[in-house]
From TrEMBL, chains A, B:
It comes from the Bacteria. Pfam families: OCD_Mu_crystall. It comes from Pseudotabrizicola alkalilacus. InterPro entries: NAD(P)-bd_dom_sf, ODC_Mu_crystall, ODC_N. This is Ornithine cyclodeaminase.
Length: 342, 342
């Protein structure tokens, strides 16, 4: 492929590629890629995402670079979209060669973000959660099935207990998970869902300071995978839970603005997950400890995911060339190239 | 077109669209769009571009929004690319709907950036430069012809005097401009090029603190269109010229880092061009004054350019649909959509 043609992975090709590889294998591979990149965290250029907020949502750019490859993701978050029949979150992303600045890959990332978010959650739980066969899954929307399968494939979860304010969402989730080797238990309340669960995943969509979990619902020794508290004014956990949890985050300057810890003082102690993975600090230090992964999603996870997709393209045909970069024979002669298009 | 399909303007279609409309008409239209957006400057979300620097170049994201439409550009700057037969600057950009976060347009922007940069230069000169038939054009690379035609179409320039360290670049530029209604005068030195020129455009590519113009070369009453001093460590003008010029800039927080004024104290007075256009402050105040447009390129110019291209697409066929946004029938059922792709 010549340099001016950028491989593009459409939504259709992403679905076909994921099915070709197998969803659980993709989740396991993504978790390994993300873990490897978290282990070399200091090598990356890091910046909080660049957000453009409006009354109804946010549009964000999430760039990072490891000095050889540059990547960024475009992603929106519009909680009101669902009522219009649209996705709350849509995304696409790009990889480029740092040496030349030329793009290497353009890809849909709505699906890929759902996969990498679940893979990151399960990878973090591998380091932080107690051994448990059971996960509560509160919020059964677009992200739910990905979370369930990631925790099955990466953490050995065998039962998921589902709850959503909307019973239709729970029914949809249970239907999609049927026959995939998980015991799926729909529940009528959050309290019922967390019964016996060593891991509690919260992944609800409302842009509000909600209280999905109250303090008395969270017993000792539990791991909370907090996914849905991910932008200013959007949290899911009672503040008291945070005060008695060991809190692990991706990139503190971003999580302090967007995560559950926006409810806490700006100097409240948190641990960076990469330091646990790199062996610099301990993860769970006590079976009775409540651990919280306050996940908001960081650019390096998207970078890992895009690099993984690129590595799997090969001769697969799951991409198409996009005529995106003007590349005149004489680089000084951009004007002449236009004239010759006549 | 359904929402999941994003109109994409390829390099090929951009060339065809520009030729279909006519290059000078596009330059005039772009200058008008950019001027209109500069006039409503306070309505925009503004941020200095987000740069990822390496030893060999920079990759940047340039977002902005007017509250209804969001836009961003990806652009690289790699001065060493030319020796590899690659473009120094390549770019693409996107418009999105602030209400939903869904993309509205994806477009190549290597060509469009060249056009909007020239249109912005000429639009600024319309407000700042003396009446003059003659422009010196120092630096005859990929941007040169666009500058020449923009100043012809927008400022009434009838003679361009060309100089480049590389005579082949000058020859290329003269060849491309032949027969377009301009008197084109190749010169053997920068000194010769500026003879009688009321406007001096500097648009060289080296990433270095160069001195393309020394102080004694710039006579009173001249307008300098400084285009090539556009990133940290890359300037073209002797500092003494800046000290006796009235300096006009796009967005001071960005220009202080990237423009000619990186050579000056951070509180050296500059005027924002939009304030001149909005009638808030005067432009040129004296025929003897040296005016400098210290141009680095700002996100709003790309926003204006993308909106213009979108407005010209209509039923033209100069775009193709890109399957970029996952859009399941039930927005909660992203997982089910993947399964159904089987």
């Amino acid at each position: 492929m010549t340099l001016n043609l950028v491989p593009f992975v459409s939504v259709d090709n992403m679905m076909k590629l994921v099915l070709h590889l197998g969803i659980e294998r993709v989740l396991v591979d993504l978790a390994a890629e993300i873990e490897a990149d978290f282990r070399r965290w200091p090598q990356f250029d890091k910046t909080p995402r660049i957000a453009s907020h409006s009354d109804v949502g946010v549009i964000e750019l999430m760039p990072t670079s490891d000095g050889e490859t540059y990547g960024f993701k475009y992603v929106n978050g519009h909680p009101g979209n669902m009522k219009k029949g649209l996705q709350t979150v849509t995304a696409f992303g790009l990889l480029a060669d740092v040496e030349t600045g030329y793009p290497l890959l353009l890809s849909e990332m709505t699906i890929l973000t759902a996969l990498r978010t679940a893979a990151t959650s399960a990878m973090a739980a591998k380091w932080l959660a107690p051994k448990t066969p059971t996960m509560a899954l509160i919020g059964n929307g677009a992200q739910a099935e990905f979370q369930a399968l990631a925790f099955k494939a990466i953490c050995g979860i065998s039962e998921v207990r589902l709850y959503d304010l909307n019973p239709q969402a729970t029914a949809k989730c249970a239907r999609n998970l049927a026959g995939r080797g998980l015991t799926v238990t729909p529940c009528r309340s959050a309290e019922e869902a967390i019964l016996g669960a060593g891991i509690i995943t919260t992944v609800t969509a409302d842009k509000t300071n909600a209280t999905i979990l109250t303090d008395n619902m969270v017993g000792s020794g539990v791991h909370i995978n907090g996914v849905g508290g991910d932008c200013p004014g959007k949290t899911e956990l009672a503040r008291d839970i945070l005060l008695r949890s060991a809190i692990f985050v991706e990139y503190p300057p971003q999580t302090r603005i967007e995560g559950e810890i926006q409810q806490l003082d700006p100097d409240h102690p948190v641990t960076e997950l990469w330091q646990v993975i790199a062996g610099e600090v301990p993860g769970r230090s006590d079976p009775a400890q409540v651990t919280l992964f306050d996940s908001v999603g960081f650019a390096i996870e998207d970078f890992s995911a895009l690099r993984y997709i690129r590595s799997q393209l090969g001769q697969s045909g799951f991409c198409e060339p996009l005529d995106m970069i003007a590349d005149p024979d004489d680089p000084r002669d951009l004007f002449g190239m236009i004239l010759r298009a006549m």
